[in-house]
Amino acid sequence: MIAIVLGTRPEIIKMSPIIRECEAWNADYFILHSGQHYSYEMDRSFFEDLNLPKPKYNLDVGSGTHAGQTARILTGIEDVLVKESPDIVLVQGDTNTVMAGALAAAKLHIRVGHVEAGLRSFDRTMPEEINRVIADHVSDYLFAPTETARRYLEREGIDENKISVTGNTIVDAVFQNREISESKANILDTLGLEPKGYFLVTSHRQENVDDPETLRSIIAGLQAVHQEYELPVIFPMHPRTRKMTERFGIQFDGITPIEPLGFLEFLQVEANARLVLTDSGGVQEETCILGVPCVTLRKNTERPETIEAGANLLVGTAATDILAGVREMLSRPRVWENPYGDGTAGRTIVTICNGLPSRNKRW
Ligand code: UD1
Ligand code: UDP
What we know:
48% of the residues lie in helices and 14% in strands. With 363 residues, it is of the alpha/beta class. The chain folds into 2 domains: 2-168 and 342-354, Rossmann fold; 186-331, Glycogen Phosphorylase B (Rossmann fold). Helix 1 crosses helix 7 (169-184), helix 3 crosses helix 4 and helix 7 (169-184) packs across helix 12.
C-alpha cells in the first residue's frame, strides 16, 4: 500500500500525476492531507480542477510557527501510519508537511520515497532548504528530477542505488492540463487581458514578503516595470503576501492584485504572459516548460536548470535590478529546451513503487 502525503498547493499539483497513475493502475493507495493549506483557493480548488479523489485523512493542522505546525503534522501522520501500516510513504517537495511526513515514516521504519529529491539552493536561511535536506537524508527512494539533483545527492554521500532520475512531475501536470486549461478557462477575457500584453507576478517566500523593506522594494520594482512597458501587472496574491501587504499598509499603484487562481486559470494566464516575475519554485519550472521568460525575485535558486537553459534570470529584490532583469529577459529569444523530462515522471515513480520493471529502475 502506498501512502501519498501532501499538504500545500504545489504538493497537490505535483502529486496529481502520481495520484492519476495510482487510479489508472487501481493501485492500493490512500491520500493523507496535513491541512497545512486549507483556504478553498489554496486547497480544494486544486482537487476540483485536477479531478482528484478526496483525501482519506485530513489532519487539519492549519497555520502556525514552524515548530508548532511541524509538531502537529508529525504526531498526526504517525497516528495514521501506525493504523494503516503502508509499504511506502511518498512525499513531494520541501514544505513542513514533507519534512514531517518523511521523518514520521522513517522513525516507524516505513520506506520513504521523496519526489523532487536533490534540489539545493545552498541557502539555509530558507525553511525549505532545511526541509529538503532532512527529507532526502531519511528517504529510501530518491526521485531526482534531473542529473544535477542526482549529483547534489551523491555529493552529500547518499547511496547512488537509492537515487532514480525521473524528471519532474510538474511536466506531467502541465502536459495533462494545458489543453484543458485553454478550452475550459477564460481568465484572460475575465481580466480583460491580451495574449503577451501583460506581466504576471507571484511572490510568497517568507524571506521576501515577511520583511517590509524587501516587500516594498519588490513592489517598487513591479511599478517600474509597469511604467516602462505600460502593460498591466497581474498579481494573484498568496494569502501570506496579502496578510503582509495589509499589515505593512502597502499600496499597489499600477499593479493589479487578485485572489489566487485555480490551476487551470493560472496555467492560462502564465502561458500567455509577456514575462513572469516570481519567487515560486514551481513557477520557475512551469515558465521554462511553457516557453515563457521568467525573472526570479531571489538571489539563488534550487532550479539552476532553468537558468542554464536561458529561461530564467536571478535578480534579487532591488527595484532597479528587477527592471534591468525584465529588460534583459525580453531581449532574449524565447527558445530553450525543457530540462525537466518528458511528462512520464508520475508513471515512472508509481512503477517503481509497485515493484514493476521500469526503464529508470536502478535497484
Ligand atoms: C508553504 C511552504 C512553502 C511553499 C508554499 C506553497 C513551508 C515552510 N512553507 O508556505 O515552501 O512554497 O507553502 O504555497 O512549508 N494561509 C492562509 N490559507 C491557507 C494557507 C496559509 O490564509 O490555506 C496564510 C496564513 O496566514 C499562514 C500563511 O498563509 O500563516 C503562511 O502559510 P504557511 O503554510 O505557513 O506557509 P506558506 O507561506 O504557505
Ligand atoms: N499556482 C496556481 N495559482 C496561483 C499561483 C500559483 O495554481 O494563483 C500554481 C502554479 O501553477 C504552480 C504552483 O501553484 O504549479 C506553485 O505553488 P507556490 O508558488 O505556492 O509554491 P512553490 O512552488 O514556491 O513551492
